[in-house]
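#struct-queue
[09:14] JT: dropping the first one here, sequence first, then the C-alpha cells:
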Amino acid sequence: MLITASAIAVMVLIVYLSSIGLKTVAPDKVVGVLTEPVEPPKTTTEPDIVKKEEPDVKEEPEVKATQFDFYTILPEKETVVPEYEIKTRTREERIGQAKETQYIMQAGSYTSTKDAEKMQTRLSAMGIEAHIQKAKVGNAIWYRIKIGPFAQIASVNTLNARLKQSGIDAIVTETDK
C-alpha cells in the first residue's frame, strides 16, 4: 500500500514538474565574447537630433493554450486518503462528526486494457462492482480500476479488508460531494 502510494506520488511529481516547463535551453550567443568589431564613438560638435520614433506595431504572440495534466491525473479533485486518516475518520463517523465527502477506491492501475479488464473480472467474481477509468499521465495512458463511490468510511474499511485478504492493495481517495 505504501509502495503504491509512493509510486503514485512520484508519478504526480514528475508530471507536475514537466508541466511547469522546467527545461534547459542552450543560449544562442555566449555572453562576453565579441563577435563583431566595435567602432569607437564619433565625436561631433553638432548637437544630436533626437527623432521620435513611432512604436512598432507588433502582433500579439499566439497565446498558447495552457495544458494542465493535473486534471487528467486526478479527475474531480480526488485526493489520496492516508491509512492513519482512514482510522481517524472511522472514529469521527462513529461519534457523528464525519465530514461530507465521498470515498472511491482504486484497486489497480494498468497500462493495458487487457490487464485492467482481468482485474475488473476478478473483482466481479468477488461480487464487487468496479469500473475502468482511463487517465493520461504524461504521455502514457493508464487504466485505473475504481470501486465506489462510498458515503461512509466504514464501508470502505470493510471492502478494503476483503481486498487485502485476496491480495489486492487498494488506494482510498476522496472527492467532495
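[09:21] JT: and here's the second one, same format:
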Amino acid sequence: MLALGAAMPALAQTVAADPATTATTAAAAAPAPALPPGARTYSVPLSRLSGQSALPLRGVDGINGLGFSARRDQQVIGARVNLDYSYSPALLPDLSHLKVLLNGEVAGSVALPKEAAATPTHQTVELPVPALADYNRLDVQLIGHYTLGCEDPVHSSLWADVAGRSTLELTVMPVDLPNDLALLPVPFFDSRDIRQLVLPIVLGRTPDTARLESAGVLASWFGALAGYRGAKFDAHLQDLPATGNAVVLLQPGDTVAGLTTPTIDGPSVAMQTNPRDPHGKLLLVMGRDAKELKQAAAALALGSEALSGPQARITRLDTPRPRKPFDAPNWLRSDRPVAFGELVPTRELNVSGHRPPPVQVNLRVPPGLFGWHSDGVPVDLVYRYSPRPGAKQSVMEMMAGNQLIRSFALHEGPGVYNRLTGVPVSEGQARVMVPTYLLPPQTALQFNYVYEYAKLGECQNSILDNVRSAIDPGSTIDISGLPKYAAMPDLSLFADAGFPFTRMADLSETAVVMPEGAGVSDFSSYLTLLGVMGQATGYPATGVTVTQSGQVAAQRDKDLLVLASGDNQPLLAQWGDALPSGFNGKERRFSLSGWVDGVASWLGNDPRDRKRQADIQLAFSSGGVSATLAGLQSPLQSGRSAVVVSGTSADGLASAVQALLTSRDTESKADNPQDRIGGSLTVISGKEAYTLQDEQNYYVGSLPTWLGLQWFFARHPLTLVGALLLSALVIAVLLYLSLRARAQRRLGS
C-alpha cells in the first residue's frame, strides 16, 4: 500500500534521548543494515494517508492520526515514521513530549527541548512490527504543559504541528498469492494501497479498434476501482513487464514473449504467474475473436465476484440494462433524495472532542446542474451534539467546498421549541438550501462542531472526554428538482467529470478517434484516459466505440473524443476553422479571446453563457513539448460535442492525459493543473495549464418549457422587447378591427 518508488534506507539503529521522555531516533551516522533478498522499503507522506496538509495537536493531550495498511501480497518486516514537526516555545521540556501510538500502544516518545521550539524539527520513531495488523492506526499525541501551577487545558500556548511532508516507511517482503480468480481485483488492484495505480496492459499485437475497445473496458474498470488514487496504464504489444503484475489480452495466433498461451476455446479469464517475475501475476483475458474478447472483458468488469479458480470460461453474459443519462453510480441520484448514510459510512458521521475534525460528506454532483432562478439544492439536516452547561457560544458550521453556508447554535439547555415539540435539546433539525454554484462536480459538505470551553475558575478547569457529535445518516440531499443544462464547451466539466462523455456511464454515446499510425505511447494515453472516465463514473466503459478519422462520419450521432500526437490526426486539418487550435506538423495555431470581449454586455447575458469572440490569431513553431485541450460543438452534428486532446508529440499527448489525473499527493489544489483546465481551449506546458479561450456557443441538456422560455428571453432581452411590441401591435390591430366591426353593425342597424 505504501510503496512510492525508490528504496530508502531501512531500520536505522536507535539511540536514547532525554531520560525524562525516551525518544527513539535514527542515528545519523549509523549504517543501515542490508535488506534481505527481495525486500523493499517504501515511504508515503502522512498528508496522503490522512488527507490533511498537517496534523495539528492542541491542548494538554491533543491527538491526531491516520490509518494505514499494507498490500495483501506484501509482509511488513520493518516500519518507522519520520516526523517533521514544530511546537510551542512555551512548553515545559521536563513535562512535555510527543507520544507516538500504533494501534493504541505506545511505540515511542519524542522530547521537546526548549532550544528547538518553534523551528522545524525532524525525528524518526521505529514502529514495533508485532503490533501491526491488517488495518492500522497511527496517532501522535501532544502531552503539553506550560506552567508548574494551575493551567488552562486549552491554553493557546499548548500547540504542536506535525507537517504533512512527514513520511511513513515500510520495509516489506513479497508474499506469493495463489492463482485464484476469487482474489480479484487483488493483486492487480488492492484497496489497501493508496498510491496511484500503475498497471501494464499487454495488447498481444498491434491492436485494431475492436481490441482497443476491449482494453478500454478493462482500463475503465480498474480506473473505477482506483477512485481517488487515479490510474495510469502502460501499453505493451508483445512483451511482458520485467516485474510486477499485468493484464494480457489474447486471441489465437497472438504471441507474447515468454508466455505460454493456454488453449482458447471461448471467452475466458485466467490468472497465472508472471514468467519474468515469480512474485508477479498475469491476468489473461481471452477470446477466439474480437467479439468473444470483448465479452470476456465485460464479464470480468461486471461480474468478477463470481469467478474462482485459476481459469474460468464465460458461458453466459446477460446484456446489462441500458444506461440512462446521468445515472453513473458515483454521481448523486437525480430521481430521489439521497441519504448521507448512502454516501458515507455511519462511523465517519460521528466525531468526539471539543474541537473535533469536521464531518465530511464527499459528493460527486452530475455536471450541468441548472440552478438559475432556483433557491438551491435542499439539504434536510439532522444533527446531534452534547449540550455544554455554561457554554453559550458553541456552534455547528455547515460548509460546502470550505465556504460557509450556515451556522447553528448548539444550545446549552431546552428552549421554547424543545418544550413545544418534544425534540430533545441534543438534536437539531433544519432544511438548508445550498446554492448550486457551491456544488461543482467534485465537492464536499463539511460540518464543523466548535464547542465553547466553559471555564470554572483557577485550578478548577479540566477536560472531560464526554463530548460527542454526529450528523444523522438519515439526513438527505435532493437534486431531483433541478434540470441538467450545461453551456458548452466547458473543459472544466471534462477535467472534473469526463463530461459530456460520461453523461452515459457506459460511454455508449462516445466515439474515441485514434490518431493515424498510433504507437505504444498513444495506446497508453488512450487507456489512461479511459481510466479517468471510469474514475468519474464508477462504471466500466462497456459501450465505448473506437474508430479512425476515415470512419468518423458513421459516428455522427455520438460525442467525439479526438486524440492526436503530432500531425497524425487528419481531423484537425479537416475541421479547420471550427477548432480553436490546430497543428500542421510544423506550426501550432491558436485563436485567442480578446480583452474587450470579456466585458459583460449591457444586454444582460448570464455569466454562464460566456462568449468571447476569437479576434487574435497566434501561430508559432517550437521544438518544446506541449499539449492542448480543445472543446467544440461536433462539426458532424449540432448538439453533439467534440473534445480534442492533442500534443506536439506522443510525450505531449501523455502530458495532457496526465494533467487530467487526480491525485491525493497534491497538498494544495492551487498546485493541481486540473483546477486550471477550463473554457474551450487550454494549453498545458509541463505542470502548468492556461485557459486561452472561453467561448461557449451551445448547450447540452434540456429545460422545462416555461423555464426554457424564461432562460431564452433572459439571454435575449431585445428579442423579448421586440416580442412584446409585436404582441402589443397584434392586440391593437385586433382590438381596432373588433371595434370597427362593432361600429359598422351599430350604424347598419
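[09:30] RK: nice, looked through the second one.
[09:31] RK: The longest helix spans residues 717-748.
[09:31] JT: good to know. The two ends are 100 Å apart (CA to CA).
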